Amino acid sequence: MATHSHPEITRLLKQIEERYPDPKSHEEHIHDLDYIDNNTCAICRRRFFLPMEFGPCKHTFCLGCLWGHLKSAVLAEITCPLCRSDAYEFKYNTSVNGDGCEHTKEEKGALSLIVFFAKLQNLDGGYIFYDDLDAVYDPDLAMPTEDGEILSFEQLRALDEEVEDSGWETDNDANGDDDDDEPVSPLTFLLNKLPIEQLRGQLGGMRFVKVVIQNRLEELAPLYQKW
User: Fold this and answer.
1) Is the entire prediction scored with pTM above 0.90?
2) What is the chain's Cα-based Rg?
3) Which of 89, 171, 211, 216 is the most interior residue, by most CB within 10 Å?
4) Which InterPro entries does the UniProt record give (predicted)?
């Protein structure tokens, strides 16, 4: 096993603790990490938060870390950060501890709000500008006082169907079918595979920085903080 000088470890940890890490800055070190157990993400080296399997290789990463990996890759170059397999079929991994105990409340809340919004926006047919989704914790944000359903039965059923759906067509181009259909964004495909139930209890006090996005969120789910 390779050993590292203390300054190198310090630099590595500083890089991987960013909310959406750029894997190009550190993934060359992933294979040399001194110790990774079954409940630790190989990218951020912290306990999993929202653990997602990459594909048949079964390698699992925090959703936020895998998100950063996909954001920096082009479609033709999407591979597992560990084994470089290009076969991906994202899946929420229920076999590991995903409580994210080593992630801050603000980190978990920000990522959860972004995922929550993106899933609802996609369900409603709206376009998602992922680079504009900057969420923060606001201690002065008032909790809604009114009662009512947070998400409708129809929304929950449709979101569950997205999790179950393969969501990725591999044969259309080869067969010449559906030429007008745009491919699913890998980021959207990843988020669709996370059950929205896993975001419960994370959204209180969270809001988007951009007012237009916050207004859209409140239009889609006025009581989102209670989820």
Assistant:
1) no
2) 18
3) 216
4) Znf-RING_euk (IPR027370), Znf_RING (IPR001841), Znf_RING/FYVE/PHD (IPR013083), Znf_RING_CS (IPR017907)
The span from the CA of 3 to the CA of 183, in Å, is: 42
Residue 4 pLDDT level (bands cut at 50, 70, 90): very low
Structural domain of 94:
39-102
Query: Which of the listed residues 60, 82, 102 is the one where a domain comes to its end?
Result: 102
pLDDT band of residue 188 (cuts 50, 70, 90) is: confident
Q: Which residues pair with 38 in a beta bridge?
A: none
157, 90, 219, 125: CA torsion to nearest 10: -80
CATH of the domain at 52: 3.30.40.10
Is residue 22 within 8 Å of residue 34, measured between CB atoms?
Answer: no
Do residue 194 and residue 207 come from a single domain? yes
- Establish if 81 belongs to a structural domain: yes
Confidence of residue 104 (pLDDT cuts 50, 70, 90): very high
